[in-house]
Amino acid sequence: MFPIRFIRSYTTGKTPFEPALQLEKEYPIQLRFIPWPFRVEESFGGNLQERNKLNWNKVRYGYMDVRRFANEHGLIIRGPQRIFDSRLSLMGGQQDYLNAQNEADQDSIFGVPTFIIRGGLFFGNDRISWAKNRLDSLKLHDT
Predict the structure, then answer these.
(1) Do residues 112 and 38 lie in contact, with contact meaning Cβ atoms separated by under 8 Å?
(2) Cα 117 to the chain's mean position, in Å?
(3) Distance separating alpha carbons of residues 92 and 108, to the nearest angstrom
(4) Which of 43, 40, 33 is nearest to 13 (CA)?
(5) Per-residue CA distances from 123 to 24, 46, 52, 87 (Å)
(6) What are phi and psi of 70, to 5 degrees?
(7) Which domain of life does the UniProt lineage start with (predicted)?
(8) Interval 42-86: pLDDT, tens
(9) What is the DSSP letter of 57?
(10) Which residue of 2, 91, 98, 111 sits 20 to 30 Å from the alpha carbon of 74, by its own alpha carbon?
(11) Strands laid side by side in the 120-123 sheet
């Protein structure tokens, strides 16, 4: 058995955790979950009235992707609703929140989920196979 490696995992309370937790089952690693607030207005071009066609395309694609994920996992996705502001869940520990933001800035985080593996950034659950390839290249597979 190889020694446990700590992997930074940036996430929100809305991020599906199952793919990340599966990594811990398949590899001798431990995920260190770091909160990162998903900023809807920054990510999708401002408020509804300010969005241009490109940003609306991103929004539509995002919903399409969510539905694909849900269909694969037998989940039900309801129509668009106001997205919960993740920053509210982090207010109890203001200094911890600021520390997490500083760490995210140093790691160049722009979205969630993001995994940092030996300095390599892997964004999105759809790229988990690339994260596994990286872990395999480090000979971290638990066999």
Answers:
(1) yes
(2) 14
(3) 24
(4) 33
(5) 17, 22, 25, 20
(6) -60, -45
(7) Eukaryota
(8) 666 667 777 888 878 887 888 788 888 889 889 887 766 666 666
(9) H
(10) 111
(11) 29-35, 5-11, 114-117, 120-123
AA identity, residue 22: Q
Cα separation, 139 vs 137, in Å, equals: 5
- The two tokens of residue 6 are 């700590």
Phi and psi of 18, rounded to 5°? -55, -50
pLDDT by residue (tens digit) across 20-31?
999 999 999 999
Cα angle 33, 35, 38; round to 5: 130
Alpha-carbon gap, residue 114 to 123, rounded angstroms: 4
Pair 92, 109: CB distance under 8 Å: no
- Least Cα distance to 11 among 42, 39, 35, 38 occurs for 35
Question: Are the beta carbons of 11 and 20 closer than 8 angstroms?
Answer: yes
Residue 142 near residue 27, CB atoms below 8 Å: yes
**Residue reference for tokens 């995002």:** 62
The three state secondary structure string of 15-38 is CCCHHHHHHHHHCCEEEEEEECCC
- Both structure tokens of 91: 């207010």
